[in-house]
Amino acid sequence: MKTLYDVQQLLKHFGIFVYVGKRLWDIELMAIELDNLYKADAIDKQVFLSAKLVLTREHRIEEQYEAAKDI
Fold it and tell me: Pfam families under this entry (predicted)?
């Protein structure tokens, strides 16, 4: 799993479609849904960790973009 699209496809496999309207919020909601899937033993640890890393990276990039936009 390498991109945010890959994480979206994983969630879509479980019938979870995330669109809040702001990319940062979408990423945060995806992380919550991913946590819930892992707690329910629907995904294994390796898939969970790789998806979580992607979301963490994308969240950081989006925060930097928002900060740069405000300057």
Answer: YqgQ-like
